[in-house]
Amino acid sequence: MDAEKLKARSRIVKLIRQWFDERGFLEMHAPRLVGLPSQEPYLEPFKTEVVEASGQKHEAALITSPEFMLKRLLAAGLDKIYDLGPCFRNNEPWDGTHDPEFLMLEWYRRDSGLEDLMRDTEEMIRWVTGQIRTPKFELPNSPFRRLTVEQAWKQYCDIELAPLLGNREAMAQVCRDRGQTVADSDSWDDLYFKIFLSEIESKLGEEPTFLYRYPLSMAALARKFTDDPRWADRVELYVGTLELANGFAELSDPVEQRQRFVEDQALRQAQGKKVWPIDEKFIQALPQMGNAAGIAFGVERLVMLLTGSASINNILPASARERFVI
To answer: Which of 147, 153, 178, 270 lies at 20 to 30 Å from 205 by C-alpha?
Structure first.
């Protein structure tokens, strides 16, 4: 436990709130205990139950993200909102950049798109960094780089990604050609990540980079690009060795969203995971959400960056490893 890093963490959290408050965002606190968590196939919520005084039991889970409730608040008429609080994800590693309980910052804007999110994110990081007297990481004076996924594959691997979209066998052959193992059970997305994680991701943060325009299969809650529906309006931010943020121009079509949830349920079932019912209140709210955009930001990862910490365990009051490993 490092007292100076814990002080820095507290200071950074306060600065983030100040930045949003001064720019007219309204802080919300989404419920952390819910009956219907996310359908994400690769995220696992903590499962529990709520028991009424009568003895009536209800299945429940801790949220992996406040996203569903914040979008319902947009649909109810709020315009600029943020939530800064704990989120929970099970089956995560307990070192490096992950802890099963972590601080998530999410903010949403009506009548906005990815450009607004990228501007917010860069301005907030620069302002917070400027208030820290001795940050361990210096940001460049030049604007953060913006790179499409397609451009990143071409720049770092000399691979044209567009012709491979949706073609599993073509992607499998690319993996074999680059020395990757290919299993019959590997999906197109699995094969994509064999190359992305080994050859691209570690290089993206050499300068702060917004990576955007993702294959549609990797954006369950994002809108399709109108000019080419094979791509989705999603963005991630990489700084140094860290992925800091993940955002979308939000999908508001309830029919398409329901179909994506059904596909996610099928993936969860195939993986032997619990399948949760679809959140009908969320589906019903989508058309009222308008043209909105939102982004999730890892607060502790920014703290790691600004304090020069190699592990999230170094900037938590008590990490999961400390709490649960004897």
So the answer is: 178
